[in-house]
Structures are given as C-alpha cells and as structure tokens.
Amino acid sequence: MSSIAQKKGFGATLWDYLTTVDHKKIAVMYLIAGGLFFVIGGIEAMLIRIQLAKPDNDFVSAGLFNEIITMHGTTMIFLAAMPLLFAFMNAVMPLQIGARDVAFPFLNSLGFWLFLFGGVFLNLSWFMGGAPDAGWTSYASLSLASPGHGIDFYAIGLQIAGAGTYIAGINFLVTIINMRAPGMTYMRMPLMTWTTFVASALILFAFPPLTIGLFFLILDRMFGGNFFDHTMGGNTIIWEHLFWIFGHPEVYILILPAFGIFSEIFAIFARKRLFGYSSMVFATVLIGFLGFMVWAHHMFTVGLGPTANAIFAVATMAIAVPTGMKIFNWLLTIWGGSIKVTTPMLYALGFIPSFVAGGVTGVMQGAAPLDYQLHDSYFIVAHFHYVIVGGVVLAILAALHLWWPLMFNQMLSETLGKWTFWFFFIGFHLTFFIQHFLGLMGMPRRVFTFGANQGWDLFNLISSIGAIFMAIGVVILVVNIIITVVKNVPVGNDPWGDGRTLEWAIPQPVPFYNFKQTPLVRGLDTFWIEKQEGNKEGMTYAEPISDIHMPNNSFVPFVMTLGLFIAGFGALYNGEKDWAVPVLVLGLAITFASMAVRSIKDDHGYHIHKEDLMNEKGGK
Amino acid sequence: MDLDKKYTPQTWPDHPEQVTMEGKNKFLGFWLFLGGETVLFASLFATYLALKNKGPSGMEFSTQTLFELPLVFVMTMILLTSSLTSVYAMYHMKNHNFKGMQLWLGITVALGLSFLALEIYEFNHYVHLGFNYSQSAFSSAFFTLVGTHGIHVVVGLVWFILLIVRNAKRGFSLYNAPKYYTASLYWHFIDVVWVFIFTVVYLMGVVG
Fold first, then answer.
1. How far is CA A446 from CA A73, A244, A313, A377, A470, in A?
2. Which chain B positions have a beta carbon within 8 Å of A205's beta carbon?
3. Global confidence as pTM
4. Tens digit of pLDDT for each residue in A340-357?
5. With a CB-CB cutoff of 8 Å, which residues 530-569 of chain A face chain B?
6. Which one of B140, B155, B176 would you mutate to disrupt binding with A, by most A Cβ within 10 Å of its Cβ?
7. B86 near B185, Cβ under 8 Å?
8. Mutate to test the interface with A, among B4, B51, B57, B163 (most CBs of A within 10 A)
9. What is the CATH number of domain A10-554+603-615?
10. In this prediction, does ipTM exceed 0.90?
C-alpha cells in the first residue's frame, strides 16, 4: 500500500471509512455520529420546553411526552455525550502520548460500529411502534408494565452500544499503559490522557452491572424471566441498584474527560504550567475511586434505612473535596497567567461558576434528609443539567473549537465561536437556573403539563425562552462548521501558537502513521519545553527514521456489529412473530462467524518502508 | 519483526506471549477484560443471593430440595482437572513442545465437554422436575448465573478447538503464542468462577 495520499472517489472514501482502523478517522466518525445524536436529543429537548412553555398545554400528549423525555435523556447520555468525548479521546490521546495508534485498532473500529448500530436501533423505535417511555433510568417497576416494544428497543439498543463503550474503555487503558513514547512517564502525561485513563477504568468496572441489568430486563420482558416481578418472588430494587452502580460512575465517566479538556485549555491560554499537576492527578484518581462508593444516593427515598443513607451521604459529600481541589488548581493556573480569551478559554471560564453551582446543589442533595424534599422535583433536573451541560457539554464545545484544527487542519471562526458561546451560555443559565426554584416550589419532574393556578407559569416560560437561546447557539455553531469546511483554509500545526503537549507538535495534516519518528518526552508539557529551547525541528526524537508497522483495514467489525443488530430484532419480537427465533439465530451466527474469521485469518498488518518515509515531503 | 519466523527450543523466548507489542497488548487487555468479567459475575452472584429461594407463594423448590452434591462434586473435579491440564499445555508452550501442548489442550477440551454434558443433564433434570426458567425468581436467577458460566465454557471450548485446528500444521510462532496464552487465561477464569458457584450456590444451598 502506498503511503502517499491520493484523490479518491466517493465509493472508495466510503469503503475507507467503513473499514478503517485509524484512530483519527474513527474519531471523525464518532464526532459526526455523536453530533447527529446531539442534534436529535436537542430537538427532543426543544419539544419538551415547547410543551412546558405554558400551563395546560396540549402540544404533545402525555404518552408522547414520556417517550420524548426518555429518549432525550438516553440519547444525550449514551449517544451524544459519551461518543463526542470518545471522539476527542481517540483524536488526541494517542498523539498526546506519542503512540502510532491505539493498542487494538481493530477493536477501536468495532467499538464505534457497536455504538452507532446500538444508537440507530434505539432510535428506530420511533418508527416501529413507539419509543421507550419509562425515563432514562427505566426503573423496572415501571418498565415491566410498559406496553409495546419501546422498552425492548431501549434494553437491546443500549446493550449493543454499551458493548462498544466497554471495548473502547479496555482499548484506551491498554494504549495508555503500554504505548507511551519514551520518557512519557505517568507523571508527565497530560491531564486529557490522565482523565481518559481514569474514565476508561470506570467504564471497565461500571458497564458490566449495566449489562447484567439490561440482560435481566430483556429476559424478563422477552424470555420469561422473573427477576423484577414480585408476584414470582422477584425484586424490582435489584434493577435500581444495578442501574445506579453503573449510573453514578457514568457521570464521572462523562465529567472526568471534561475536566481533562479544561485543564488543557487553562494551561494553553493562560500560557502557564497547570497549577498543582500532581494534585490534579491525585484528585482525578480519587474522584474515580469515590465514584463507585456513592450510587445509593440516587436511592435515598427507596428506604434502605438510616445507616445506609448516612454512609452514602457522607461518601457523596467527600467527593466535593477532590473536586474542590481541581477548581482551585484551575483558578490558580489562571492567576498571574498571560491570558488569551479565545473561544475555548471562554468556555473554560464559563465552566467554573456553572459547574460550581451544580456541585453545590449536589452536596445539598447529598444530605439525605434534604433529599427527601428535593427528590423527583425540578431541583434535581436543574442540578444534573448544571453538571452535565455546565460541565460536559461546555467541555465538548470547548474541545470542538480547541482541537478542530488538529483534526481537520482548519480553524473554526472565532467570531462565530464567541457568538455561539454567549447564546449558549446565557440560554443555559436562563433555562436551568430558574428550575431550581420551580423545584423548591414543588414542581415534580417528568410531568407533561401543569395547571394555570399553580404559580409555575412565568418561570416555565422563562426556562423555555432560555432553551431557544441555546438552540440559536447550536445553529450558529453548525453554520460556523459549514462555513469553515467550505472555505477549507489550512492552518498548519500549533495554530493556537501556545500548544504545550505532544499533539501540537505533529505536522499538519496529520500523517496516517502519526509521528514519523517516535518523539522523546523530556518533561511535562514537552512541546512547550522544545519551543522554549528554540528547537527548530519541533521535537527531540527517540529513534532514527525506520520502518513503521501498521494495522490492516478490516470490514469484519462492521459485519460483526450488523449480526448483533439483526439478532436484536429477533430478540425483540420473540414469542410474537414466527420469524423471531430464526432471525435471532441468524444474527448471532453472523456475529460468531465473523469472530471465527477474525480468529482464523492471520492479520499481520503491513510495513511502511523507511525509503518511502524519507521521500515524503519534509522527510529528513 | 517477522511473526512467522520459526523458532527452536533454544531460541524460543521465555515468555513467548509477551515478546511482540501485540502480544503485550493482548496480555494486558485480556487481564483487564477479566477484571470486567469479574464485576459481571459479581452482579449475577449478588442477584442470585437476593433471589435465592424466592418464588410465588407456596413454591415447593428450594436449594435444599433441589441440589444434589455428588453430581456437582464430580463436575467440580472435572473442571478443576481441566484447569490443571491447561497449565500443562502452557508449560509445554514455554518449552516449545508443540505436540505436547496440543495434546494437553485436547485433553482439556475433552474434560470441558464432559463438564458441559453433565451440566446439560443437570439442567434437563431440573426442568423435568418442573423447575424451569420461568418457574420463579429463584429459577431465573439460578439458570442465569450458572447458565452464563456454561456459555463461557462453550466459548472457551470453541476457542480452544479453533486454535488447535488452525495451528495444527504450522507450530508455534510469536503470532499465535499470545492467542494460546489468553485462551488458557480465560479457561482459568471460568474455573475460578465455578469454584464460587460451587461454594455459593451448591454448598451454601445444601449445607448453609
């Protein structure tokens, strides 16, 4: 295979993406697919706010409203936030540690396709008899009673997508442990890499309980199981435990990479070394650890008893300590820095007060007695939107602007970027700040409408107006992306001028084999060190130019996933349609056959030869 | 590095599964995977303990009336022995004795199959007694926990058979050594899970 890029037709490009194992291309696919689901989830959010804009509204029916809120939550968490973070992890992390690719390029591709097919499967429910309607938590007492196939789409779709996430987690862990460039010790790893590492460890241990919970739900609803049916001796609380043993680490799986992104941004645009690097690493690991100890704070009102509630309340509040460490470290990074207020920096500056507000309400809910008052009210809705939107979504938007030039060799417009930020940021606070008070005034979450005499009209209207602002912000972002892609002005490497970590040292457009020679890492912020010392070559290298070993592209991951997708429909209609079991068997047969093919067929990859590398432009 | 290179017992490395980068990654990745599997089975065990002996009112089945230790003891011995034979296989891989390794893996597969046959017999027996999957929460939890282990046994056996057949004519290489090694790790893990099933489900069910 030639290592020189050629102009290709549409079919060839499509085939290239269907079979690619390159972490940079997979990152682009995660970005596109995650972005698409983000827009779908956003439209669902707008429908919710239209329905709640005035009292006694009949814009959507109560049943449809339940489907919309369920799909909004599920889509945003599983199909938008996580894949978008995976996009940046894939694009940036291997470059930050100077690796050729991730440890298992084949599995990287498999993980992406599993996520995409799972997401498509879940969203097909809209067209095949109705979406899931038991909330994103899908408590078994509710979901077992749900008629139609909505919940089945939820359980099977998330099972497929979850397998992809699990695979990606293992892949990132092995990559970071085994494939760091010479000199890249653990305590020299950029914070984005560290948070990817800890988030991946959380994925490894948090997703299996979800898998089991979803299996129980599938077995109960489609295959005659009795796990949650109390008339048969089952226990519905088991679902709640399994779901939250997954669900609470999940919020740290989302927020830790967001912390990593902001840590990079503060250091770059304050043009200062990240303050308290070691304590940042320590706090990250500690948050990851404590994240597993607190799941029952979602279940204070279930009736676990005062002892259990007290233990989980204390553990919950303890998480505020390492998180607070991080907040102060960021503030002290900005302190005395030479600050450039770019779009990513704006997001980072907006993130601190927003996230602190979300954290403070979190501690309030951590106090079990108070939680009895706040539980299932709009206060909860306000809280988790403050941490998820004020933390994770702001981080994703910041990362999009920060790393767009790294991924596409173009710069998003700063002017439009700042417009996006202000619309989104003001809209966000307008929408959710007031919901705290709605909650305190007694408005329960997940209600499809409210009465005119309840005194909630004005605040709900303000909240809906805020949502329009956020939508305008997103529209400006889409326009920005379209303009940038059409203009296609190349910017070269280190376009911000202040890149500190290894990913900014790589030439643009990034060669498919990444660094021609593996770089030698001489300290934290290694590219910054080289720039300070006036290194004209960009980096110090650890090896002479030599042959590079590359993995082969493969279509097997796509087929493997397609099998599970087909099997999903078989399971869904089990006991209802005659063709269900044959389809289930056929789908699983496709998957297992492609696994066998993968095992039997040798895949040694190929080498790019030294001479080809030398001949390329800029070869030395 | 040429992955198809032929080695002699003298040149064969001490840890053939961890010589190449791919081998190192597989080794670590598989250990991590087993970590996740542990949590998976932990969830199943926790559910089983919560639903043990729980069923519709007046249910006649309980762990005491249902389980018979002699059969399960035989199954346990078979599976433990198969773990030992897979260790022999890995020992021969270390010493570059390909035939020895294939032979011991063959014995491992035979033992695994007999375990599986006994398990199918056991499940069949319970179903004939009326203790089927939908009978109660207890039956669902029991069959799911032990059945998930059974599915792991099937996967492990298919994996071993594929490896034995695929490599029968070409001997060792640094490409297939990590595959053999991870398959045997998987087999040990299955064995460890069974030790817990034997203890928690059967022993504590009958005696405890």
1. 11, 19, 25, 9, 21
2. 35-36, 39
3. 0.95
4. 999 999 999 999 999 999
5. none
6. B140
7. no
8. B51
9. 1.20.210.10
10. yes
